[in-house]
Structure formats: C-alpha cells, structure tokens
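Async update (no meeting this week)

Hi team, since we skipped the sync, here's where things stand on the single-chain job. The sequence we agreed to prioritize is pasted below, unchanged from the tracker. I ran it this morning and attached the output directly underneath so nobody has to dig for it. Comments welcome in thread, and please keep replies under the output.
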Amino acid sequence: MSYLSTWMAVAALAIVAILIPVGMVVVSAILRPRVIEQGKTQIYESGEVPTGDTRIRFNIQYYMVALLFVVFDVETAFIIPWVVIYREAVETVGLVHALVPMLVFLGTLLAALVWAWRVGAIKWVKRAPTHYRRSQS
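Output:
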C-alpha cells in the first residue's frame, strides 16, 4: 500500500464519520412532526400541573454522604485485587514490598475518615423540631 492510499482510507473514514451523524440529523429534521404538542411546552411532561417553586433547598449532607461513599467504594476496588494477589506478591517481592504500599493506602484512607468525622461530614444533622402553637378559639 502506498502512502497516498493510506491517507485516502483515513479521509474516507473521516468523511463517513461526518456524514452519518449529519445525515441522521437531517433525516430526523425532515421526519419530525411539525405541530408542537401542548404537553411538550409545559415544564414537566408528566401530565401533572406543576405547583410551587422549582427551587428547593437540599441538605448538603446528601452530597457529603455520596462523596464519602464514592471514596470508600473506590477503596474496595483497589483492595480486592491486592488481596487476590497478596500471597503471590509476598513470594515474589517479599513481605515488606507487598504490605507497605497497602498499609500506606489504608492509613491515608483512615486519616481521611478521621478528618471527615472530626469536621462533621459523617454526622447527620437533623432538622430542628418546629413547634406549632394551637390557636385559642
């Protein structure tokens, strides 16, 4: 194959890669319905009439718990393969070289857990109770 024919194949692939998405957009624009449905113009397409404001306050604890879950879930993705090869690693590189990196990793995670605990990221804050005064009738 010559140098020119190699680049011609790349150019043909690039043209196909551009024509397929553009063709799909053009075909969908031609085939789409022209009349806009009334339900599509509403805020929610569920058929329910929206009530109230769309902006509501979420407790930041949801995000903190989610982030901590991701951190400690990824931890298991690193620990499980290490556990599987631990015996072979000790035989090939020795106990110190197989154990010390994982102890450093676990120590870092433990320090992160202690830090999160001390700053209150793990403590779930409950909403203060609201007391209603009954009207005197």
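Quick observations from my side:
The chain has a mean pLDDT of 81.
Helices lie at 3-31, 61-93, 95-119.
Reply here if anything looks off.
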